[in-house]
Amino acid sequence: MRGKPAPNLKDEIQKLAHRMGYYWAENSDPSVPFNGFMYRVPVMIAVKAIKIRYSPGEDCIIEKKFPDDIAEIRTLPLPPWVIREFWVRTQNERAYRRFYILPHTTAEIEENTAENYRNSHYREAYWKKAPYSIDIPLHKDGEKRDEVK
């Protein structure tokens, strides 16, 4: 055997959640189709992650590329305040692309400075000129965020 074994998807997403400052709780019910919850004081996120061989493309409409997965995430028996995310990892990029799954649309997360997350497909020059970008503080000014060790 050459080299170390390939990482497990469950272990990868748990490590990424910890790196972004979240706690991780794995889904123990196989009848509910998602991997687990990421949570910290102001937010809770249900995550479903998949690995694919080829990139879905720069301007991918995720609802058309993975309609069954998106429908499953939307129908999760969770309260409406729990955020739903779909993560796609490709074989060659070794990075996740994260998508918010909202009731009637989806949105790719380009950059989230609070989580120290940056999409590898992020086009900084394009978004710096965007008239509709906003900053959403996830904690009160002067309040220390809890950190995962």
Itemize the secondary structure elements and their pairings.
Layout: H1 9-19, E1 23-26, E2 36-40, E3 43-52, H2 62-65, H3 67-74, E4 83-90, E5 96-101, E6 106-108, E7 111-112, E8 117-118, H4 124-128
Parallel strand pairs: 3-4
Antiparallel strand pairs: 1-2, 2-3, 4-5, 5-6, 7-8
Keywords:
4 helices, Trna Endonuclease, Chain: A, domain 1, single chain, 6-stranded mixed beta sheet, 149 residues, 27% strand, globular, alpha+beta, 8 strands
Produce a short descriptive summary.
This protein has helices at residues 9-19, 62-65, 67-74, 124-128; strands spanning 23-26, 36-40, 43-52, 83-90, 96-101, 106-108, 111-112, 117-118.
What does this molecule look like?
It is built from four helices and eight strands, in the order αβββααβββββα. The protein has helices spanning 9-19, 62-65, 67-74, 124-128, and strands at residues 23-26, 36-40, 43-52, 83-90, 96-101, 106-108, 111-112, 117-118. A hairpin with a 5-residue loop joins strand 4 and strand 5. The longest helix is centred in the N-terminal third of the chain and has 11 residues, at 9-19. The strands form two sheets. It has a six-stranded mixed sheet. Strands 7-8 form a two-stranded antiparallel ribbon. The N and C termini lie far apart (33 Å). By secondary structure, it is α+β, with helices and mostly antiparallel strands. The mean pLDDT is 79. It has a single domain (9-128), classed as Trna Endonuclease, Chain: A, domain 1, CATH 3.40.1350.
